[in-house]
Structure formats: structure tokens, C-alpha cells
Design brief:
The protein has 450 residues and is an alpha/beta fold. Helix content is 39%, strand content 13%.
């Protein structure tokens, strides 16, 4: 059993106090350049029956549909929830939703949103305000990283649902051979050296994709900096932190890993899935990746394609440190729930969201679909601990996790990061960060296209 991390015992630089609510400044012009009109769908309940709430979900293993059914039953006729599945790719989900929302589509009652896109939706006025009393309830036991990922301009604009984070996965036999004490924090330098000493591999996401932005952001945050130090209403005034000492330190880590000789020849095209395959091989040593690693390995054992001795050798720890005496800031991901501004039933939609995000439903979703909960109480559930023996480390990681850059122009920022930091072997401390900052400024000023 593992209790939630006590923030009073965390170093001052990692504590995140709750933010006061403030009136959200709406700037619809922030997104109009990329919006096109579509026909708005009609709201449900027109036949005199209970209102039909449509929940736009990201693809999963059926967990959100089951929760929708549960909450429909629990509503006792007050409303019914119908799910509508979005495309698999996060960027395509964003595109479909933003087009519908710009057309004032009243059918979008509830949305499962990838946290990096929440500021863009909120800034454009596409999200219904979260009632104060709802905010108090849904944030009571939520991990701070999920609250931060649901916040824009100091206001909660979405509701935490499930929260993801990356762990440092390692082979216990390799760590023992290298003499690493994995009960203590380790640095990137230590795991690179351990992989070199044992002739094993180190997996990280070097592909030119969102996974690379996730890695770069985690390294900069772990060094005490941020890709965006201050987001402003005018994108041209955005204050970037890519020319800072933490950004340079992050570049040093990327260069170290890329030049280490332990990443394998496909490092520059390796994403999360490729790294998992590599970690199941005989020469695997270390890897940073999401918790789906565990479920995948057990499924492979059950299917007869992986020997049980492989996952039995898996160990897990908090993300590697960039600075030896400073806690890491692991990646934060997941899904948060928001209500469409044009919904005909916003009050019922928030009532439904509170049902969707109960401790019971989050525990169900974690154990059946493998997606970690944002509710700290879930991590005391015996069934969760049985399915995820690394649950205490997941919670500890979520308490330390940092969001990706919070900006209404996230797509432009992430695209610029991917262009300049790829391939990782080209990253040069003191040069790549400023180059990325220059590109971001030019893109945000409309002087250059990605």
C-alpha cells in the first residue's frame, strides 16, 4: 500500500499551489485561421425523453462506452449518454472537434481532450465554464499535474479524468549487474553508463513526432526550466525558455544519449511502440515509457509470444533526473473532460462528468483499459495494486509530473520543437535551443510556415 505523496515533503521548487480562479479572456481570433465550417448536429431529447448527451471519446478498449452506460443507468432517466468515437490520432481528434465547435455544434456535450490542446479550445471560447461547486468536487483528490493540465489563464476549464506519466523501466538483472541502487533516484548519465558497462540498450523516443516534444519538454522541466516561460494573448510576445541554462542542460542529455552507442540504429525513428519491442529483447537494459508497457508484456505472455521470465525481470522507477540533486519532472499526459460551449445541456453534462470521474469509475478504467487515474484515492484500491504493482510509482511520478507547454498555439510550438531537435544526433547544446526559439517566434509571427 502506498499513500499519495505529501506535498509538504516535496522540495519547494516542485510544489504547485492551487491557482485562484480568474475570468477567462476569450479570443476567438486565436483559432479562426485554422477553422472551417461544418453542419451543426442537433441536440438529443427532442422526442420528450431524457436529454441525450453526446460524449466524443478517443479510441480505447471500450472503457469509456461502459462508463457512459453506467452513468446513464445511474442518472435514473435524467439523461442518457451516447458516445461518438473520434479518430485515433490526437491531432485529427483536435481538428474534428475544433471544426465542429467553431460551427457552434450543439451535439458536442462532453469531450475527451488531450491536455496540450485545452488552452487553444479555452482561448477560442469553445468550452463551457466549469461551475465553482463542480470545480471544488472534481479537484479535491486529483493529482496536481492533472489539475494544472486542465487549467488555462488561472482558471479550471476542464475536468481531470485519467492522467498518464512516463516511468523509467529497467531490467532488474541489468541494474544489479551495473551496481545501480534503483531504490534511489538515478540520473541520465548513470543509466547511460550502466547500459554501456553491461552492453545493453537504452530506449527513448527519438522519432520526429509528438513523442520527441514530450522528451524535450520533460528534460527542460527536469532541469528547472520551461519551453514557454510566459504565454501571452499576442503570440508574438510569448516568452520562451529555450535559450536558458535548463534548455542547454536538456540538450546535453539528448546529445549524450544520441552519442552513447546504446540506443540502437533506429533511434531517430523510434517511438513508444518501437521502444517497447526493443525492451522485450535479450539486450534490453533501460527505457523511458508510459505504463502500457506492463499490460503489453503480460498480454504477450498470455498469447505465448513472450516468455514469463521477461516481465518478471522488469523493474520501474521515477523518471531519470537531469540535475542530480533536483527531482525529475516526468511527462504528463492523459485525457481531461470538457463541455462544449454550445451544448444545450451544460449543467447535465457536468453532472455526467462527475459520474464519469468517480473514484469507482476511474479504478474500473485503470484496471480494464490500462489508463492511470487522476484520482489519488484510486491508488489505494487493492485491485488496482494487483493489476499495476507499480501503481505507487505511477502516483509518485504524477505528483512530480509537468505539463507540456501551455499555449493556445501548441501545434506550432510542438512542430517547431520536432523540426529543430530532430534527429537527436544533431542536437548541439547552446545552439539547438536558440534555433528552436527563433523558429517558434517566426512561426507565431506568421513569418514562416512549418
Amino acid at each position: 500500500m502506498h499513500d499519495a505523496v505529501d506535498s509538504s515533503r516535496m522540495p519547494p521548487d516542485r510544489r504547485r499551489p492551487r491557482r485562484p480562479r480568474a475570468r477567462r479572456a476569450l479570443a476567438a481570433g486565436a483559432a479562426t485561421a485554422v477553422l472551417t465550417s461544418v453542419l451543426a448536429a442537433c441536440g438529443g431529447g427532442g422526442d420528450g425523453g431524457p436529454p441525450d448527451l453526446t460524449w466524443y471519446i478517443n479510441p480505447d478498449s471500450g472503457g469509456q462506452a461502459e462508463i457512459a452506460s453506467r452513468c446513464t443507468d445511474a442518472a435514473g432517466g435524467r439523461y442518457a449518454i451516447t458516445v461518438a468515437q473520434l479518430p485515433r490520432e490526437s491531432s485529427e481528434q483536435r481538428q474534428q472537434l475544433i471544426r465542429r465547435l467553431a460551427a457552434n455544434d450543439t451535439s458536442i456535450d462532453i469531450m475527451s481532450l488531450d491536455p496540450p490542446y485545452i488552452p487553444e479550445f479555452a482561448q477560442a471560447g469553445f468550452l463551457a465554464d466549469v461551475p465553482d461547486e463542480v470545480e471544488q468536487r472534481v479537484t479535491q483528490d486529483a493529482v496536481e499535474s492533472a489539475i494544472e493540465g486542465s487549467t488555462w489563464n488561472d482558471e479550471l476549464v476542464a475536468v481531470p479524468f485519467w492522467a498518464n506519466t512516463q516511468l523509467l523501466w529497467y531490467r532488474k538483472s541489468v541494474a544489479e549487474q551495473a551496481g545501480l541502487d534503483m531504490t534511489q533516484p538515478v540520473t541520465w548519465e548513470q543509466i547511460v553508463q550502466a547500459a554501456q558497462d553491461t552492453g545493453t540498450t537504452l530506449g527513448a523516443q527519438g522519432i520526429r513526432a509528438e513523442a520527441l516534444t514530450v522528451w524535450v519538454n520533460a528534460l527542460i522541466e527536469s532541469a528547472g526550466g520551461s519551453i514557454i516561460e510566459e504565454a501571452t494573448e499576442d503570440p508574438a510576445d510569448t516568452v520562451l525558455g529555450l535559450e536558458s541554462e535548463p534548455a542547454e542542460r536538456a540538450a546535453e542529455v539528448i546529445a549524450l544519449v544520441a552519442d552513447s552507442g546504446v540506443t540502437g540504429p533506429a533511434f531517430s525513428t523510434a517511438g513508444e511502440d518501437a521502444n517497447v519491442v526493443g525492451f522485450e529483447s535479450e539486450d534490453a537494459g533501460f527505457m523511458v515509457n508510459w505504463p502500457f508497457v506492463w499490460g503489453r508484456a503480460l498480454s504477450a505472455v498470455e498469447g505465448g509470444t513472450l516468455d514469463r521470465s521477461v516481465p518478471d525481470d522488469y523493474g520501474w522507477a521515477v523518471y531519470p533526473r537531469v540535475v542530480e540533486d533536483q527531482p525529475a519532472a516526468p511527462p504528463y499526459g492523459g485525457i481531461n473532460l470538457a463541455v462544449g460551449a454550445s451544448s444545450l445541456h451544460p449543467d447535465l453534462a457536468y453532472e455526467a462528468i462527475e459520474c464519469i470521474t468517480t473514484t469507482e469509475n476511474q479504478a474500473y478504467y485503470m484496471t480494464t483499459n490500462g489508463n492511470p487515474a487522476s484520482d489519488t484515492a484510486v491508488y489505494d484500491d487493492p485491485e488496482v495494486l494487483e493489476v499495476f504493482p507499480m501503481a505507487p510509482v505511477i502516483l509518485e511520478s504524477l505528483e512530480l509530473a509537468a505539463s507540456r507547454p501551455q499555449t493556445a498555439y501548441y501545434s506550432e510550438v510542438s512542430g517547431s520543437i520536432q523540426r529543430t531537435y530532430h534527429p537527436p544526433s544533431s542536437v548541439t547544446p547552446g545552439a539547438t535551443g536558440p534555433e528552436a526559439a527563433e523558429l517558434i517566434r517566426a512561426v507565431l509571427a506568421g513569418e514562416q510556415l512549418l
